[in-house]
Amino acid sequence: MKQFAHLIATIDHSNKTSVKVNALADYFNKATDADKVWTIAILSHRRPPRPVNSTQIRHWAAEQAKIPLWLFEESYHIVGDLAETVALVLPDHQKENQQSLSQIIQDIIDLKPYEEADKKKYMLNMWDRLDYYERFVFTKLITGGFRIGVSQKLMTRALSQATDIEEDVLAFKLMGDWKPAEISFDQLILAPDDQASLSRPYPFYLAYAIEDSTQEEKAADYFFEHKWDGIRAQIIIRDDEIFIWSRGEELVTDRYPELHQLKEKLPNGTVLDGEILPFPDGELGSFKDLQQRIGRKKVSKKLLKDVPVIFKTYDILEDEGQDIRQVPFEERRHRLEKKVQEALRSTDILHLTQVYSFPDWSSAAKERARAREFRSEGLMVKKKDGVYRVGRKKGDWWKWKSDPLTIDAVLIYAMRGHGRRSNLFTDYTFAVWDEAKQNLITFAKAYSGLTDKEFRQMDAWIKKNTIDKFGPIRSVTPHHVFEIAFEGIAYSRRHKSGVATRFPRIQRWRTDKPIEEANTLSELKQMIPD
Predict the structure, then answer these.
(1) 394 and 417 share a domain?
(2) How far apart are CA 127 and CA 415, in angstroms?
(3) Residue among 484, 482, 352 nearest 405 (CA)
(4) Do 495 and 393 reside in the same domain of the chain?
């Protein structure tokens, strides 16, 4: 555990990628195999189940620190991170910890069925044996919220540095349904894997937002597709079986039973890349429709009927059992069309995305302007001779999203932020007018889009213009108008306004507008696509 805590401390104290990679590589060279496997699991979001909840942790930590709960809560609110707050307020450790990371994680797994009194005893004992960073790491593991400044890509690079195995090979090995408690480091990383396990997908290629420099190249060198707002997935047909993997490296085959027929429509040795999209009433739905299916391990007959899905494919990664990711995209597209041609005639579950070629960027921009007519988010821009890469790498794939929707709204509630903004009111709730322009109706929250200077100005104003307090939330005098941008909008029964916006953020502070000129709810609803 000391090794792992030291690793996290090193990573936490540096913003340099090289320092983080070198620290990880050094750790992988020195740690035990069991600790290596759990480190890989933790950094790739495979964590043990939570045995206690945050309320219990807050109460027990306040008791151990011999401070009132309200003081712990105030400290937590200022610090912004529960594990860090616990590590800061507890007295110095009295004993030494000798357990390894893997041993402690096994204790955490075993702790789940215990009675609350036994869980408390274990937690207090562990806190008393751990130094600051060990406590921080231990509490992070307990809460299941282990997020540090290391992506899986950086971890894979460090593993490659430590093992001399190519990054692409490691990325392939780390995908799939492996369980850290049931696999050794040799099986996971070192053992040759000439043929991946039957269900294993390929690492996804992710696009960067388009840059001005991209448009200096010839538009004719690219294919253009609409960017679909669904669940990115790979459909794998091998050995007469179908496997469906989401981009989040989750096996979701059972959640989309209507797609299972594709194992009879497509030949073995086929892997397709594409989007799972909602298709209610025989037409493309919204992401809000799809949210009813996300996370459902069991899908009812009613949900299957109300929100059926299709798979819209745009790439083929494996053809006749051969990895063809290094084949130019234009050739892969030709193979894709040929491969799915027969399936398209025999099922309405599989759709093929349309590709466009344009002589110049202005022509492409006109198609992008039509994106919302197709319920798409904009355009994907793919180099015709480009290969299918691993992870987010610049060069061959770009996303050219539509300009966001915008509305002018009034700030009515504020809350303190987290981390470096924990002393400032930076999390805001916005409202639009009702039709009579008598009442303001909340519709969105946003906490990004202003400069640090603007956040400080708003914080000072909020503190002077608070009407009421509701726990950490302050109600403020309606006075400031902000232009709020968002990617999509749909009807919602869960929200007071009757609408839900997707990815709302502050576009600009409209100091030129009085609140009377803010938009109305009906104007907001007019943006909802038919």
Answers:
(1) no
(2) 31
(3) 484
(4) no
pLDDT digits (tens, 9 = 90+) for 246-284: 887 677 888 899 999 999 999 999 999 999 999 998 888
Question: Which residues, 6+ apart, have CB-to-CB distance to 240 below 8 Å?
Answer: 263, 268
The verdict on pTM exceeding 0.90 is: no
Query: What burial class does residue 516 get, using C-beta atoms within 10 Å of its C-beta: 0-12 exposed, 13-18 middle, 19+ buried?
Result: exposed
pLDDT tens-digit series, residues 412-468: 999 988 766 777 899 999 999 998 889 999 999 999 899 989 999 999 999 999 999
Clarify whether residues 409 and 366 are in a common domain.
no
In angstroms, the CA 75 to CA 335 distance is 59
Collapsing DSSP to helix, strand or coil, 500 comes out as strand
Residue 131 and residue 56 share a domain: yes
394, 431: one domain: no
Domain carrying residue 212: 205-401
Which of the residue ranges 105-109, 202-206, 415-419 would you say has the lowest mean pLDDT?
415-419
| Same-domain check for residues 243 and 296 | yes
CA separation for the pair 203, 387 (Å, rounded): 13
CATH number at residue 233: 3.30.470.30
d(CA 320, CA 303): 35
Verify that 97 and 231 share a domain, yes or no: no
Cβ density class 415-428: b for 16+ within 10 Å, e for less: bbbeeebeebbbbb
**What CATH number corresponds to the domain at position 410?**
2.40.50.140
pLDDT tens for residues 370-388? Answer: 998 888 989 999 999 999 9
Per-residue buried b or exposed e for 371-408, using 16+ beta carbons within 10 Å of the residue's own CB: beeebbbbbbbbbbebebbbeeeeebbbbbbbebbebb
Pairing of strands 376-383, 397-401: antiparallel
